[in-house]
Input
Amino acid sequence: MNRIGIMGGTFDPIHIGHVMLGIAAKTQFSLDRVWFMPTGVPAYKNGCRTVTEGAHRAAMTALAICDHEGLELSEIELQRVGNTYTADTLEQLCREHPDHQYYYIVGADSLDYMDQWYHPEMIFRHAVVLAARRNTQTEASLLATMRFLQKKYQADIRLMDVPEIPISSSAIREGIRQGKDMSDWVDQRVLSYIQKHGLYLPVVQNAEREQDNG
Output
């Protein structure tokens, strides 16, 4: 069977931490490919900020991973109408590609909430979960959460060793708004794309830019 990693997220924007996590998963678990999968309409962000248009997030993701063999863009969730749920995505993938074994890549802090996700039993039935350790978690707390999920869902959870990157997409967006240099955290091609399309600028500044281009 083909061993396929799934790296989901809004990727708004994608940063080096996302890419490093995908590479680490591929290397440590001998995956054939890792699909980077920008979310469509993530249910957990309803009522929060507006997520950047999917076409932009897909384009930035493709630019960030294009030099890394085995890392690929998947737009399956962007093509879905309505809220995006991991359980639905895995159900569809297993139906369409029964010859694949899926490995769902998350930060280990996500394990604390997966019991509250939409149909977690489907997630654990269809995929091995690869969890990257986080500095905010104690070993005892992490192992207790894993035992709970393993007992309740017969979950196959495996821990990853990968350096934690002290950056987030929200901090990058704010840095771009403030005119800060984000090149340590974001691929230069992605930064050029952001600049070209005026993403993450303050509303007033973006309006002025569009007027100048008009």
About this structure: Residues 206-214 have pLDDT under 50 and may be disordered. The helical segments are 16-28, 54-65, 86-96, 120-126, 139-153, 169-177, 188-197, 203-213. Residues 190 and 196 are 10 Å apart (CA to CA).
